[in-house]
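fyi for ur records
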Amino acid sequence: MSDKRLLLVEDEPGLQLALSDRLSAEGYTVETAGDGNVAVTRATGEPWDIIILDVMLPGRDGFDVAKTIRQQGIQTPILMLTARTQVFDRVVGLKLGADDYLTKPFETIELLARLEALLRRAPSSSPGLSLERYSFGDITVDVRKAEVMSKGRLLDLSAKEFQLLKYFIEHRGATISRDELLQEVWGYSAMPSTRTVDVHVAWLRQKLEPNPRLPQFILTVHGLGYKFAG
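which gave:
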């Protein structure tokens, strides 16, 4: 039996009920959402072990939902369901953050196998993070909720600032070049200027460092890039 929390995003009532019953019988704790807006709220506001996400949804489609979830820094495995069969649609889903893709109609046994495979591949915690949380100084980072707290106060970080901080934490102790950060956090293979990284680092320091002028956590390695020492 599983004991995993699963969010099922499916707007067709019959399929939602059938899948909920079968997944519950397999031991999953199943919660449902019937449209894209509710899906984003629940996916980004609660901890989940895995998400089943239909593409064709009212409110906003599954592609947009997946993209928004990933922009919030949430790495919960996503299995997309769709009646579409075109390769282009599958590629779009995967590029926007889905981990696997299942085309309707499908056999439930295959769905269960895909879920089990995704859960096996998913790390119990991200590299360098303990139980989806990480603390340094007065700062606590909750990866699942994409929240950063300082002395019990929620800090206002943009999605890109959170992704940058998460990348630093996952690679703490390593010297990371600006080009690597542009490619891995922003997705740019080339940029006319690395000023984008420097600006975001400065913003992070203002929010995280006791003294941004003398940073303790996000250190500059002159001529090379940055190092996270939290």
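The chain has eight helices and twelve strands. thats all i got for now
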